Predict the 3D structure of the following.
Amino acid sequence: MEESYERAAGIIKESKCLIALTGAGISVESGIPDFRSPGGLWERFDPMEYANINSFMNNPRKVWDMFFSMKDIIGNAKPNPAHFALARFEEMGICKAVITQNVDNLHQDAGTQNVIEFHGNFSRLECLNCGSSFRRDEFELIDMPPECRNCGNILKPSVIFFGEMIPQNALIESHRFAESTDVVMVIGTSALVYPAMNIPYIAKRVGANIIEMNIEHTSLTESITDVFIEGEIGTTLATLQSHIERLILH
């Protein structure tokens, strides 16, 4: 494992444009379970029934039952050492962008400025009727769905439902970075879902190194990954941070 850290730190030191691709695994240590894992949200709520845009349009109050189950988990979560490590990499000028599939806002809470969100952000609410937007913390969200203060329509969390398009600007920006990067850190994701799955492969085609950090091997590991670091992300990314700082700052 020590050799993997040294290899990864050496690659990162020589990098001119590093990006990170993150998934649910980076937030598990913040208390947010992977929705697809045993005991996750999708065991209690059928995603095609509760997380589909048509379901929200037809019965928003029912869909909000699922979000009430999410709000305390996500609302009480705090960034863990992995989120702070990526923020530190940005501060050092190493990481140019974090592309995330998460909706928990923890990258921003840790201090990362350039975050590209594929699936939106649960800290914001939007009105599909008049286009107004609000911060989630402007509403108490006890047991009644929040209503738009401008038109009275039930608000929708600013997350991407099944049946909705990934934001066009997120697609454009992520592809732009993937085509110009020389290192991609794949962190806490198996990258099996579009559009995240495209990012490491696009980057590999232009000659980028792939550093993968996951709790287990993925389809990337034996195909395009150059350095694989196995373990809980909060621990491994903090360890990698110490190697990089020692290499670059001393």
